[in-house]
Write a structure and sequence with these properties.
7 helices, binds 2-acetamido-2-deoxy-beta-D-glucopyranose, Glutaredoxin, globular, about 230 residues, alpha/beta, thyroid hormones biosynthesis, membrane, selenocysteine
Length: about 230
């Protein structure tokens, strides 16, 4: 890929305009028609796992939509997506990651022969495939687009901060290894993984590229592919 710089700059400006416009419209509608907007946002929430947690009511996350922090975060996600280098059928970016023990390795080191490897980029969450959680930057840091009543984690200023956040996840005993994106955030960038995303790699190539979370993060799509492979 790799576009000429003026193209990227223009693209970023267009994204800025588009995001700003959608936030202004969203905020206005939220003020004018609070109930209709609540229904709309809840409907969007149904597509994610956001409203499956009974302790995490709409009041904790719904009203944070269309805030300034929301704008900043959505802008960052969309700008970062311009650095995407992962395409289905193409070689998988072999970006660096760090184990919780502090050892630097690469995503493809986790591939075993021809077994599919599922990359789960993001935060919380096997038989014929291997799984790897890659802990990337916080989607809902307390000093960013924060949700109420959520775990308190600040934007990571250092790899130590990121490790501390991943250790909270590790405490919930995920059924697969957890590694950290480096502070250059290369894994997150090259896989356009913010805020959360699923991939399946096989034989060094990208076999499946999931949609952008939370709305289009669908583990059942991975299950469907694995069932076919079985
Ligand atoms: C990577 O993400 C962290 C937030 O977790 C941020 O502080 C840092 O500046 C980012 N690094 C780069 C190179 O953008």
């Amino acid at each position: 890929p790799g576009q000429p710089v003026p193209g990227v700059f223009l693209h970023k400006i267009l994204i800025l305009l588009q995001v700003t416009l959608s936030v202004v419209v969203g905020k206005t509608l939220m003020i004018l028609f609070p109930n209709a907007m609540k229904r709309y946002i809840l409907k969007m929430g149904e597509k994610s796992r956001m409203n499956r947690n009974p302790k995490f009511s709409y009041e904790n996350w719904g009203p944070t939509f269309f805030s300034f922090k929301y704008l900043q975060f959505v802008l960052k996600v969309k700008w970062k997506r311009l650095e995407d280098e992962a395409y289905e059928g193409h070689p998988a970016p072999n970006t660096p990651v760090v184990t919780l023990g502090g050892e630097v390795c690469h995503v493809l080191d986790f591939m075993k022969d021809n077994r599919p490897l599922i990359l789960n980029f993001g935060s919380y969450f096997s038989s014929i495939a291997d799984f790897l959680i890659i802990y990337i930057e916080e989607a809902h840091a307390v000093d960013g687009w924060a949700f109420k009543n959520n775990i308190v984690i600040k934007n990571h200023r250092s790899l130590e901060d990121r490790k501390a956040a991943a250790q909270l996840l590790q405490k919930n005993h995920p059924l697969c290894p957890v590694v950290l994106d480096t502070m250059e955030n290369l894994s997150s960038s090259k896989y356009a993984a913010l805020p959360e995303r699923l991939y399946m790699l096989q034989g060094g190539k990208v076999l499946y590229k999931g949609g952008v979370g939370p709305w289009n993060y669908h583990p059942q799509e991975i299950r469907a592919i694995l069932e076919k492979l079985e």
